[in-house]
Amino acid sequence: MDAKKSVQNKRDWILATLLFVLLGGLFIAFRLFAFADEASLAHVYYGNSDEPIVTIDFINYRVISNYDQNVPSEYDDIYPVINEGQQTITLLGDYEINGERQIVVIRYDYGRKSVEIIQEQSPNNICSREGESTGWPLICLPNRIRVEFETNDEDFTV
Amino acid sequence: MTLLANFLAIAIVLNIIESAIPIIPVPGAKLGFANVVTLIIIYVYSFKDGFALTILRVLLVALLSGKLLGPIFYMSMSGAVIATLAMGLFQKLNYFGIIGVSILGSIFHCIGQIAAGIFVIGSIAVIAYLPVMLFLSIPAGVLTGIIAKRFLVIWQTWHNETA
Questions:
Q1: Where are the domains of chain A?
Q2: pTM for this prediction
Q3: B31: which of A11, B100, B106, B127 lies 20 to 30 Å off by Cα?
Q4: Was domain B2-162 assigned CATH 3.90.1200.10?
Q5: What interface predicted TM-score (ipTM) does this complex get?
Q6: CA end-to-end distance (rounded Å), chain B
Q7: Strand partners of residue A92
Protein backbone atom coordinates (compact mmCIF):
# COMPACT_ATOMS: atom_id res chain seq x y z
CA MET A 1 0.00 0.00 0.00
CA ASP A 2 2.84 2.38 0.87
CA ALA A 3 4.70 1.58 -2.34
CA LYS A 4 1.65 2.53 -4.35
CA LYS A 5 1.36 5.73 -2.35
CA SER A 6 4.92 6.76 -2.98
CA VAL A 7 4.59 6.08 -6.71
CA GLN A 8 1.51 8.25 -6.72
CA ASN A 9 3.30 10.89 -4.74
CA LYS A 10 6.07 11.00 -7.29
CA ARG A 11 3.54 11.31 -10.10
CA ASP A 12 1.85 14.14 -8.23
CA TRP A 13 5.01 16.18 -8.08
CA ILE A 14 5.92 15.45 -11.69
CA LEU A 15 2.43 16.59 -12.65
CA ALA A 16 2.75 19.70 -10.53
CA THR A 17 6.13 20.68 -11.95
CA LEU A 18 5.17 19.89 -15.54
CA LEU A 19 1.96 21.88 -15.35
CA PHE A 20 3.63 24.74 -13.54
CA VAL A 21 6.28 25.11 -16.24
CA LEU A 22 3.85 24.58 -19.11
CA LEU A 23 1.15 26.89 -17.83
CA GLY A 24 3.71 29.41 -16.65
CA GLY A 25 5.18 29.55 -20.13
CA LEU A 26 1.74 29.81 -21.66
CA PHE A 27 0.83 32.58 -19.30
CA ILE A 28 3.97 34.59 -19.99
CA ALA A 29 3.70 34.12 -23.75
CA PHE A 30 0.09 35.10 -23.70
CA ARG A 31 0.71 38.12 -21.56
CA LEU A 32 3.49 39.31 -23.82
CA PHE A 33 1.93 38.71 -27.19
CA ALA A 34 -1.83 38.72 -26.92
CA PHE A 35 -3.71 41.93 -27.40
CA ALA A 36 -0.44 43.73 -27.98
CA ASP A 37 -1.36 45.58 -31.14
CA GLU A 38 -2.30 49.21 -31.07
CA ALA A 39 -6.03 49.64 -31.01
CA SER A 40 -8.09 51.61 -33.45
CA LEU A 41 -11.42 51.20 -31.73
CA ALA A 42 -12.73 50.19 -28.36
CA HIS A 43 -16.18 48.67 -28.00
CA VAL A 44 -18.16 48.78 -24.80
CA TYR A 45 -20.64 45.95 -24.43
CA TYR A 46 -23.41 45.46 -21.93
CA GLY A 47 -25.12 42.22 -21.02
CA ASN A 48 -25.33 39.47 -23.60
CA SER A 49 -25.51 41.79 -26.52
CA ASP A 50 -23.17 41.24 -29.44
CA GLU A 51 -23.71 44.78 -30.56
CA PRO A 52 -21.54 47.27 -28.69
CA ILE A 53 -23.50 49.89 -26.86
CA VAL A 54 -20.78 52.52 -27.24
CA THR A 55 -17.82 52.59 -29.59
CA ILE A 56 -14.76 54.71 -28.97
CA ASP A 57 -12.98 55.67 -32.15
CA PHE A 58 -9.34 56.44 -31.41
CA ILE A 59 -8.55 57.28 -35.01
CA ASN A 60 -11.23 59.87 -35.59
CA TYR A 61 -11.45 61.09 -31.99
CA ARG A 62 -15.09 60.43 -31.46
CA VAL A 63 -17.44 58.37 -29.38
CA ILE A 64 -20.48 56.74 -30.94
CA SER A 65 -23.46 55.70 -28.91
CA ASN A 66 -25.15 52.84 -30.75
CA TYR A 67 -28.24 52.37 -28.64
CA ASP A 68 -29.64 53.23 -25.25
CA GLN A 69 -29.69 50.88 -22.33
CA ASN A 70 -33.03 49.35 -21.54
CA VAL A 71 -33.35 50.86 -18.08
CA PRO A 72 -36.34 50.38 -15.74
CA SER A 73 -38.37 53.51 -15.16
CA GLU A 74 -37.31 54.01 -11.55
CA TYR A 75 -33.93 55.24 -12.76
CA ASP A 76 -33.97 58.86 -13.93
CA ASP A 77 -31.21 59.07 -16.46
CA ILE A 78 -30.94 57.71 -19.93
CA TYR A 79 -27.89 55.51 -20.18
CA PRO A 80 -25.26 55.58 -21.59
CA VAL A 81 -24.23 59.06 -20.54
CA ILE A 82 -21.30 60.31 -22.57
CA ASN A 83 -19.28 63.19 -21.18
CA GLU A 84 -16.90 64.39 -23.86
CA GLY A 85 -15.31 66.97 -21.58
CA GLN A 86 -14.21 64.50 -18.97
CA GLN A 87 -13.90 61.76 -21.57
CA THR A 88 -16.13 59.38 -19.68
CA ILE A 89 -18.94 57.03 -20.47
CA THR A 90 -21.41 56.12 -17.76
CA LEU A 91 -23.51 52.98 -17.90
CA LEU A 92 -25.89 51.35 -15.49
CA GLY A 93 -24.39 48.09 -14.29
CA ASP A 94 -26.09 44.95 -13.07
CA TYR A 95 -24.56 44.95 -9.65
CA GLU A 96 -27.11 45.95 -7.06
CA ILE A 97 -26.67 47.51 -3.67
CA ASN A 98 -29.89 47.24 -1.68
CA GLY A 99 -31.73 46.41 -4.84
CA GLU A 100 -30.46 49.46 -6.67
CA ARG A 101 -28.29 49.06 -9.69
CA GLN A 102 -25.03 50.92 -9.65
CA ILE A 103 -23.34 53.02 -12.30
CA VAL A 104 -20.13 52.12 -14.03
CA VAL A 105 -17.93 54.94 -15.25
CA ILE A 106 -15.47 54.27 -18.04
CA ARG A 107 -12.81 56.76 -19.02
CA TYR A 108 -11.14 56.80 -22.39
CA ASP A 109 -8.03 58.53 -23.67
CA TYR A 110 -7.59 59.30 -27.34
CA GLY A 111 -3.91 60.06 -26.99
CA ARG A 112 -2.96 56.86 -25.23
CA LYS A 113 -5.70 54.90 -27.03
CA SER A 114 -6.68 53.46 -23.71
CA VAL A 115 -9.77 52.75 -21.70
CA GLU A 116 -10.11 52.45 -17.96
CA ILE A 117 -12.97 51.61 -15.63
CA ILE A 118 -12.64 54.32 -13.02
CA GLN A 119 -15.76 53.93 -10.96
CA GLU A 120 -17.94 50.95 -10.32
CA GLN A 121 -19.46 48.82 -7.60
CA SER A 122 -18.61 45.16 -7.39
CA PRO A 123 -17.30 42.78 -4.74
CA ASN A 124 -14.01 44.31 -3.58
CA ASN A 125 -14.31 46.80 -6.43
CA ILE A 126 -12.34 44.33 -8.42
CA CYS A 127 -13.35 45.78 -11.79
CA SER A 128 -11.65 49.10 -11.30
CA ARG A 129 -8.45 47.38 -10.25
CA GLU A 130 -7.75 46.27 -13.76
CA GLY A 131 -6.45 49.73 -14.50
CA GLU A 132 -5.84 51.29 -17.84
CA SER A 133 -5.87 49.01 -20.84
CA THR A 134 -4.69 49.51 -24.39
CA GLY A 135 -5.55 46.09 -25.69
CA TRP A 136 -6.50 43.66 -22.99
CA PRO A 137 -10.23 43.28 -22.61
CA LEU A 138 -11.70 44.89 -19.53
CA ILE A 139 -14.30 42.58 -18.12
CA CYS A 140 -16.57 43.44 -15.25
CA LEU A 141 -18.60 40.31 -14.71
CA PRO A 142 -20.82 41.46 -11.82
CA ASN A 143 -21.99 44.40 -13.93
CA ARG A 144 -21.93 42.46 -17.18
CA ILE A 145 -19.99 45.20 -18.85
CA ARG A 146 -16.96 44.59 -20.98
CA VAL A 147 -14.63 46.63 -23.13
CA GLU A 148 -12.94 45.00 -26.07
CA PHE A 149 -10.40 46.57 -28.38
CA GLU A 150 -10.31 46.31 -32.12
CA THR A 151 -7.09 46.67 -34.03
CA ASN A 152 -6.62 47.94 -37.50
CA ASP A 153 -5.14 45.20 -39.61
CA GLU A 154 -5.33 46.92 -42.91
CA ASP A 155 -2.42 47.19 -45.24
CA PHE A 156 -1.64 50.70 -46.26
CA THR A 157 -1.49 50.04 -49.98
CA VAL A 158 -2.75 52.51 -52.48
CA MET B 1 -23.98 13.22 9.85
CA THR B 2 -23.04 15.99 12.25
CA LEU B 3 -19.47 15.65 11.13
CA LEU B 4 -20.51 16.27 7.54
CA ALA B 5 -22.48 19.27 8.70
CA ASN B 6 -19.38 20.59 10.40
CA PHE B 7 -17.39 20.10 7.24
CA LEU B 8 -20.04 22.00 5.34
CA ALA B 9 -19.76 24.87 7.78
CA ILE B 10 -15.99 24.94 7.36
CA ALA B 11 -16.37 24.89 3.58
CA ILE B 12 -18.79 27.81 3.73
CA VAL B 13 -16.42 29.85 5.87
CA LEU B 14 -13.47 29.08 3.59
CA ASN B 15 -15.51 30.12 0.59
CA ILE B 16 -16.48 33.43 2.17
CA ILE B 17 -12.90 34.16 3.24
CA GLU B 18 -11.72 33.28 -0.24
CA SER B 19 -14.15 35.73 -1.80
CA ALA B 20 -12.80 38.49 0.37
CA ILE B 21 -9.27 38.09 -0.96
CA PRO B 22 -9.00 39.50 -4.49
CA ILE B 23 -6.18 37.49 -5.95
CA ILE B 24 -7.49 36.96 -9.44
CA PRO B 25 -8.29 39.91 -11.68
CA VAL B 26 -11.46 38.28 -12.90
CA PRO B 27 -14.34 39.52 -10.82
CA GLY B 28 -16.03 36.56 -9.26
CA ALA B 29 -13.32 34.02 -9.83
CA LYS B 30 -11.87 32.10 -6.95
CA LEU B 31 -8.83 29.95 -6.51
CA GLY B 32 -10.81 27.11 -5.02
CA PHE B 33 -9.46 26.80 -1.49
CA ALA B 34 -12.90 25.81 -0.28
CA ASN B 35 -12.43 22.70 -2.42
CA VAL B 36 -10.13 21.33 0.23
CA VAL B 37 -13.21 20.19 2.14
CA THR B 38 -14.67 18.58 -0.98
CA LEU B 39 -11.41 16.78 -1.53
CA ILE B 40 -11.29 15.50 2.04
CA ILE B 41 -14.89 14.31 1.97
CA ILE B 42 -14.32 12.45 -1.29
CA TYR B 43 -11.43 10.57 0.26
CA VAL B 44 -12.86 10.05 3.73
CA TYR B 45 -16.49 9.43 2.87
CA SER B 46 -17.64 9.08 -0.70
CA PHE B 47 -17.90 10.95 -3.97
CA LYS B 48 -21.65 11.35 -3.52
CA ASP B 49 -21.14 12.94 -0.13
CA GLY B 50 -18.50 15.26 -1.52
CA PHE B 51 -20.66 16.24 -4.45
CA ALA B 52 -23.70 16.91 -2.29
CA LEU B 53 -21.66 18.92 0.16
CA THR B 54 -20.12 21.02 -2.59
CA ILE B 55 -23.45 21.87 -4.16
CA LEU B 56 -24.88 22.75 -0.77
CA ARG B 57 -21.87 24.89 0.00
CA VAL B 58 -22.18 26.94 -3.18
CA LEU B 59 -25.92 27.37 -2.70
CA LEU B 60 -25.62 28.41 0.93
CA VAL B 61 -22.82 30.87 0.28
CA ALA B 62 -24.86 32.43 -2.50
CA LEU B 63 -27.87 32.70 -0.19
CA LEU B 64 -25.78 34.15 2.60
CA SER B 65 -24.20 36.76 0.35
CA GLY B 66 -27.66 37.74 -0.79
CA LYS B 67 -26.88 37.39 -4.45
CA LEU B 68 -28.47 34.21 -5.72
CA LEU B 69 -28.40 33.47 -9.45
CA GLY B 70 -25.92 36.22 -10.26
CA PRO B 71 -22.96 35.78 -12.60
CA ILE B 72 -20.72 35.03 -9.62
CA PHE B 73 -23.03 32.22 -8.57
CA TYR B 74 -22.93 30.59 -11.98
CA MET B 75 -19.16 30.77 -12.06
CA SER B 76 -18.88 29.34 -8.56
CA MET B 77 -21.30 26.51 -9.23
CA SER B 78 -19.82 25.68 -12.60
CA GLY B 79 -16.28 25.63 -11.27
CA ALA B 80 -17.18 23.69 -8.15
CA VAL B 81 -19.22 21.04 -9.97
CA ILE B 82 -16.64 20.41 -12.65
CA ALA B 83 -13.85 20.36 -10.10
CA THR B 84 -15.71 17.89 -7.91
CA LEU B 85 -16.49 15.61 -10.86
CA ALA B 86 -12.86 15.72 -11.94
CA MET B 87 -11.56 15.02 -8.45
CA GLY B 88 -14.01 12.16 -8.04
CA LEU B 89 -12.91 10.67 -11.33
CA PHE B 90 -9.20 10.93 -10.67
CA GLN B 91 -9.57 9.63 -7.16
CA LYS B 92 -11.34 6.58 -8.59
CA LEU B 93 -8.67 6.06 -11.24
CA ASN B 94 -6.14 6.04 -8.43
CA TYR B 95 -3.30 7.03 -10.73
CA PHE B 96 -2.37 10.12 -8.77
CA GLY B 97 -2.11 10.77 -5.06
CA ILE B 98 -4.28 13.27 -3.28
CA ILE B 99 -2.05 16.19 -4.25
CA GLY B 100 -2.33 15.28 -7.92
CA VAL B 101 -6.09 14.96 -7.63
CA SER B 102 -6.19 18.33 -5.95
CA ILE B 103 -4.16 19.95 -8.73
CA LEU B 104 -6.42 18.48 -11.38
CA GLY B 105 -9.45 19.62 -9.43
CA SER B 106 -7.99 23.10 -9.31
CA ILE B 107 -7.46 23.14 -13.06
CA PHE B 108 -10.97 22.00 -13.82
CA HIS B 109 -12.26 24.52 -11.31
CA CYS B 110 -10.71 27.28 -13.42
CA ILE B 111 -11.99 25.85 -16.67
CA GLY B 112 -15.47 25.62 -15.20
CA GLN B 113 -15.40 29.19 -13.99
CA ILE B 114 -14.11 30.58 -17.27
CA ALA B 115 -16.68 28.60 -19.23
CA ALA B 116 -19.46 30.01 -17.07
CA GLY B 117 -17.96 33.48 -17.36
CA ILE B 118 -17.98 33.28 -21.14
CA PHE B 119 -21.58 32.14 -21.04
CA VAL B 120 -22.70 34.85 -18.63
CA ILE B 121 -21.07 37.74 -20.41
CA GLY B 122 -21.61 36.36 -23.87
CA SER B 123 -18.10 36.89 -25.15
CA ILE B 124 -15.08 34.68 -25.60
CA ALA B 125 -12.94 37.55 -24.35
CA VAL B 126 -13.18 36.07 -20.85
CA ILE B 127 -10.74 33.43 -22.03
CA ALA B 128 -8.08 36.12 -21.76
CA TYR B 129 -7.94 35.26 -18.08
CA LEU B 130 -7.59 31.53 -18.52
CA PRO B 131 -3.77 31.45 -18.66
CA VAL B 132 -3.27 33.44 -15.47
CA MET B 133 -5.93 31.49 -13.62
CA LEU B 134 -4.59 28.13 -14.73
CA PHE B 135 -1.11 29.14 -13.71
CA LEU B 136 -2.20 30.28 -10.25
CA SER B 137 -4.33 27.20 -9.79
CA ILE B 138 -1.26 24.95 -9.66
CA PRO B 139 0.17 26.27 -6.39
CA ALA B 140 -3.36 26.56 -5.06
CA GLY B 141 -4.01 22.93 -5.93
CA VAL B 142 -0.72 21.85 -4.40
CA LEU B 143 -1.50 23.73 -1.21
CA THR B 144 -5.00 22.32 -0.83
CA GLY B 145 -3.60 18.88 -1.64
CA ILE B 146 -0.98 19.14 1.07
CA ILE B 147 -3.55 20.32 3.58
CA ALA B 148 -5.89 17.48 2.66
CA LYS B 149 -3.07 14.97 2.86
CA ARG B 150 -2.09 16.17 6.33
CA PHE B 151 -5.69 16.03 7.39
CA LEU B 152 -6.05 12.46 6.19
CA VAL B 153 -3.04 11.41 8.23
CA ILE B 154 -4.55 12.98 11.35
CA TRP B 155 -7.90 11.42 10.51
CA GLN B 156 -6.39 7.96 10.19
CA THR B 157 -4.64 8.22 13.54
CA TRP B 158 -7.78 9.54 15.18
CA HIS B 159 -9.88 6.79 13.67
CA ASN B 160 -7.46 4.07 14.66
CA GLU B 161 -7.34 5.34 18.20
CA THR B 162 -11.08 5.37 18.69
CA ALA B 163 -11.65 2.07 16.89
A1: 1-34, 39-151
A2: 0.83
A3: A11
A4: no
A5: 0.82
A6: 18
A7: A103
